[in-house]
Amino acid sequence: MLFFLSVVALFALLIMLAFRYRASLLPHVPAPLRQLLPPFLNNYESLSSFSSQIGAGLTSPAFDLEANVRDGDSRAGLDEQGTREIMEIMRRERVGFDQARLIRHNRILAQNGIDPSGMPVDSKAVTRL
Fold first, then answer.
1. What is the residue range of 73's domain?
2. pLDDT tens profile 81-105
3. Cβ atoms of 47 and 25 closer than 8 Å
4. Sign of torsion, CA 49 53 58 59?
5. Distance of alpha carbon 121 from alpha carbon 45, whole angstroms
6. What is the pLDDT of residue 14?
7. Are residues 29 and 68 in the same domain?
8. Whole-Å CA distances, 90 to 21, 50, 84, 99, 102
9. pTM (2 decimals)?
10. Dihedral, CA atoms, 105, 24, 59, 77, nearest 10 degrees?
11. Within this chain, do residues 26 and 51 fall inside the same structural domain, yes or no?
């Protein structure tokens, strides 16, 4: 009985981990199998070009990706991890692209010990001579 309970618990843990990390696992699933998945699992789409990022709403007058496409920019697109983070912020906090970029930028500054004004949080930092 205890063995079967352990197997069921292990199986449930594997299912929860697969669901939690589905965004990083789905790109490795072959396309024919990915089409068989239910829609709530099959929502991953790579945004590796400027055109697809514009279509996802990752442009604004202050951060104009359309100008990059017009000018024939040879780069592949924006950073994939940053794009996912910004889209998650936009979805979770229901803000626009520029506000999501600001939130992400402030989080990166906070992780590095810098307040939103650009001053270091460390009391020992020399900011004036």
1. 45-120
2. 888 888 889 888 999 888 998 999 9
3. no
4. positive
5. 38
6. 93
7. no
8. 20, 18, 10, 8, 11
9. 0.55
10. 100
11. no
| Residue pair 98/62 in contact by the 8 Å Cβ criterion | yes
Residues 64, 12 share a domain: no
Amino acid at 74: S
* SS3 of 18-78: HHHCHHHHHHHCCHHHHCCCCCCCCCCCCCCCHHHHHHCCCCCCCCCHHHHHHCCCCCCCC
Whole-angstrom distance, CA of residue 113 vs CA of residue 39:
41
Q: Cβ contacts of residue 45 below 8 Å, gap of 6+? A: 52
Q: CA-based diameter of the chain, in Å?
A: 72
pLDDT for 117: 80
| Residues 74 and 17 both lie in one domain | no
Contact of 65 with 58, CB cutoff 8 Å: yes
Q: Structural domain tally of the chain? A: 2
Q: Residue 58 and residue 50: Cα distance in Å, rounded?
A: 9
